[in-house]
Specification:
The protein has about 300 residues and is of the alpha/beta class. Helices cover about 35% and strands about 20% of the residues. α2 runs antiparallel to α3. The longest helix is centred in the first third of the chain and has 34 residues. The termini are far apart. Bound molecules: copper (II) ion (CU). The site of copper (II) ion has 7 residues, from loops.
Length: about 300
């Protein structure tokens, strides 16, 4: 009897565990991105963990320049303290009349010049590296709207959909408050992805801290950037250009997955996202229509 009871409890447990798996109709092609989540956390110091080679270089340059700055600040502070004490009025009733010293003038011209060169060379290298969006595997046109993002995959016909933040009352387990979205931007790992960034209304900011991308989304203009994500995972960003009432409610969620998963997702998205496409033309603002009517 005891044995039978144990067996029954065991079988019920197995059924309960299997139920969610059975209920799921199709596997999620972006599931590989759930294993690694690169999101901001409370009391975070420094930059996020670099998710792209560009961010790794930005991180390196920031720390490199910070060391130079620390050296300069400490040196100048110590020198000033020394001068304040040694050359104070009470200690020097008869002031010195020295006006020139060739050696020290040479040193204070030459040493800062060397420091500037040491900072400028890697900075300019990085600027060129950031600007080199040539030969991408694919291009996504990113359009900022009040208040959501639109992603248009240039090489995948019909794949143009909107991405809205999940409001607090609709959050599911695993969602991150004010960062998770309904339709994330899905990208293949290990490939160069070019972004054509623009806006449908006002200025927005396409800002992906862990990938080192930060560009204005400007109406009527395309600003380009690119990324390359080596590791499968979920990466987050936000609009960082004050764009109106719900500026804080247009986060960016990127699911980076292996190529096979990405191609599987493209098929699913092409089949399911047709209702999700943004209206091609925006109406004139209500205020302007009112002004015309009262004239
Ligand atoms: Cu915005």
């Amino acid at each position: 009897m005891k044995r039978l009871g144990g067996w029954l409890i065991g079988a019920t447990g197995v059924l309960l565990l299997a139920a969610p798996a059975l209920a799921q109709t199709a596997p999620d092609p972006t599931a590989a991105a759930n294993a690694y989540v690169n999101a901001p956390h409370n009391w975070q110091m420094w930059f996020p963990v670099a998710g792209s080679p560009m961010m790794a270089q930005i991180d390196w340059l920031m720390k490199y320049v910070l060391w130079w700055m620390t050296g300069v600040v400490v040196f100048v502070a110590l020198l000033m303290a020394y001068v304040f004490v040694k050359f104070r009025a009470s200690n020097n009733p008869v002031p010195s009349h020295m006006t020139h010293n060739t050696l020290i003038e040479f040193v204070w011209l030459f040493v800062p010049t060397l420091i500037l060169i040491a900072v400028i060379v890697p900075s300019i290298n990085l600027i060129f590296y950031e600007g080199d969006d040539s030969n991408p595997y694919m291009t996504v046109t990113v359009t900022g709207h009040q208040w959501y993002w639109e992603y248009n995959y240039q090489s995948q016909p019909g794949l143009d959909y909107t991405s809205y933040m999940i409001p607090d009352d609709k959050m599911a387990p695993g969602d991150i408050r004010r960062l998770s979205v309904d339709h994330p931007l899905v990208l293949p790992i290990g490939e160069k992805i070019k972004f054509n960034i623009t806006s449908g209304d006002v200025l927005h900011g396409f800002y992906l801290p862990s990938l080192g991308v930060q560009k204005y989304a400007i109406p009527g203009t395309i600003v380009t950037s690119w990324t390359l994500i080596p590791k499968a995972g979920t990466y987050y960003g936000q609009c960082n250009q004050i764009c109106g009432l719900n500026h804080d409610a247009m986060p960016i969620e990127i699911k980076a997955v292996p190529m096979a998963d990405y191609l599987a997702w493209v098929k699913v998205a092409q089949a399911n996202y047709t209702q999700n496409t943004v209206a091609p033309r925006l109406r004139a603002p209500a205020a302007i229509q009112l002004a015309d009517a009262t004239r």
